[in-house]
Structure to design on (294 residues):
């Protein structure tokens, strides 16, 4: 669902940007859930005001508005709103986390904006994303330079927040974790590993399908870089108590990847056909990672 209040700045129109973002989000998310987009020829805000809404809110599990914020040119960052009586904000927090490499995070906030309030009154959870400030030159430069990745980050936040799964994924991976062992296979965008448990990744496997392929290797404690392996082969060690410190991937398609490092946390996203995650020579364990196909 999209509603547009028509902000403008830095030579951009909110209507154009929101339609572009929503169209790309629909393309990504349609593999994970049934998606409906509010008709671009209409305006949800005015329709709610006039009692002429084009959909039945109770047909949906979640309504998501996309906006671009505006102020006096001095404000910047991304934020997301839910109705005041919304108790669960884990999805919105995931979206903010995924956008944090690109924008200053202003956080999850509560306010009864007309459309999301109306949706909530119908018993359906809803949120309004202010992607960034349309009248902030720095925000808009970041958006233009990273548009595809930012839209993918919004989608990844929704996917992770709801625990959605792609029926057929072109990329999957798993990890061997200290005191846990091998995880289940994870589809692209899902996290392998742990946070806040001080557990090391010890080995990984990565598979690509539908004619796509990759090779990968890991940097292991007291060993260094191990040999390259490919499509589903084990990289790393098990039963030796050795931590992975870095992962290197070479693929025939562009990837977006992010890692969680001991004492550091989540690192900025890496992107491209050559991905390097982690550190060398710092004795820091790699604790978690996630990968998407661009």
């Amino acid at each position: 669902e999209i509603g547009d209040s028509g902000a403008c700045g830095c030579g951009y129109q909110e209507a154009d940007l929101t339609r572009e973002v929503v169209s790309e989000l629909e393309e990504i998310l349609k593999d994970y859930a049934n998606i409906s987009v509010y008709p671009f020829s209409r305006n949800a805000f005015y329709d709610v005001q006039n009692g002429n809404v084009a959909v039945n809110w109770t047909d949906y599990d979640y309504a998501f508005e996309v906006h671009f914020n505006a102020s006096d040119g001095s404000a910047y960052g991304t934020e997301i709103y839910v109705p005041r009586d919304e108790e669960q904000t884990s999805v919105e927090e995931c979206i903010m986390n995924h956008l944090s490499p690109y924008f200053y995070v202003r956080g999850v906030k509560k306010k009864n904006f007309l459309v999301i309030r109306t949706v909530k009154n119908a018993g359906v959870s809803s949120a309004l994303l202010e992607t960034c400030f349309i009248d902030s030159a720095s925000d808009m430069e970041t958006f233009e330079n990273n548009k595809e990745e930012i839209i993918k980050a919004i989608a990844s936040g929704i996917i992770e927040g709801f625990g959605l799964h792609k029926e057929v994924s072109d990329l999957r991976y798993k990890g061997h974790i200290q005191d846990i062992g091998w995880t289940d296979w994870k589809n692209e965008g899902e996290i392998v590993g742990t946070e806040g448990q001080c557990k090391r990744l010890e080995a990984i496997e990565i598979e690509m399908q539908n004619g796509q392929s990759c090779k990968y290797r890991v940097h292991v404690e007291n060993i260094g870089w191990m040999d390259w392996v490919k499509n589903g082969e084990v990289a790393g060690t098990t039963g030796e108590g050795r931590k992975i410190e870095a992962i290197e991937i070479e693929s025939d398609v562009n990837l977006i990847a992010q890692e969680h490092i001991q004492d550091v946390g989540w690192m900025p996203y890496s992107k491209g056909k050559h991905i390097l995650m982690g550190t060398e020579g710092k004795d820091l364990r790699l604790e978690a990672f996630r990968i998407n196909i661009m």
